[in-house]
Design a protein that fits this description.
Number of strands: 4
Number of helices: 7
Bound molecules: guanosine-5'-diphosphate
CATH class: Alpha Beta
Strand content: 15-25%
CATH topology: Alpha-Beta Plaits
CATH architecture: 2-Layer Sandwich
Largest sheet: 4 strands, antiparallel
Structural class: alpha+beta
Strand order of the largest sheet: 2-3-1-4
Oligomer: single chain
Order of helices and strands: EHHEHHEHHEH
Length: 139
């Protein structure tokens, strides 16, 4: 995979609230192309592994319970400067601080249920994409 990819998830609450289509439309309108995608539910253990970097944070248990509470959409998306541009498109972690028109401003319901995940570095994008997808599943 090239350096111009990032990894995203549509989180359980946004899926439950019927926002998959709207969020994917924003991603595509934002100039990203979809390299890989799946609809799945994480186990608690898988969510704990994915978010292991946050294991010392006070919200780790709540976050991993939430992320395993229902199905998600996981995807690898591509664009020049993907990581930074996607972070701009999704907005701040806390939707209360997110810029108008960003995905989190539009579709998040709380700091935890903040609609989408977006990788924070090229290195993590590769690691996170590899957590969900094999080489054969990325186009
Ligand atoms: P991100 O890179 O913008 O997703 O933010 P972080 O890496 O700091 O946090 C990872 C995820 O943990 C966020 O997307 C939220 O779902 C959740 N999170 C972050 N801060 C808090 C918090 O203060 N409370 C709770 N309950 N969840 C949080």
């Amino acid at each position: 995979m090239s350096g111009n990819i990032t990894f995203t998830m549509i989180k359980p609450k946004a899926v439950e609230n019927g926002h998959i289509g709207n969020i994917l439309a924003k991603v595509i309108e934002g100039g990203f192309t979809i390299k890989a995608m799946k609809y799945l539910r994480l186990t608690k253990e898988q969510a704990m592994e994915f978010y292991a970097v946050h294991k010392e944070r006070p919200f780790y248990n709540d976050l991993t319970e939430f992320m395993s509470s229902g199905p998600i959409v996981a995807a690898v998306i591509e664009k020049e400067n993907a990581v930074e541009d996607y972070r701009k498109l999704i907005g701040a972690t806390n939707p209360a601080d997110a810029v108008e028109g960003t995905i989190r401003k539009l579709y998040a319901t709380s700091i935890e249920a903040n609609a989408v995940h977006g990788s924070d570095s090229d290195e993590n994008a590769q690691i996170e994409a590899g957590f969900f997808f094999s080489k054969l599943e990325v186009f």
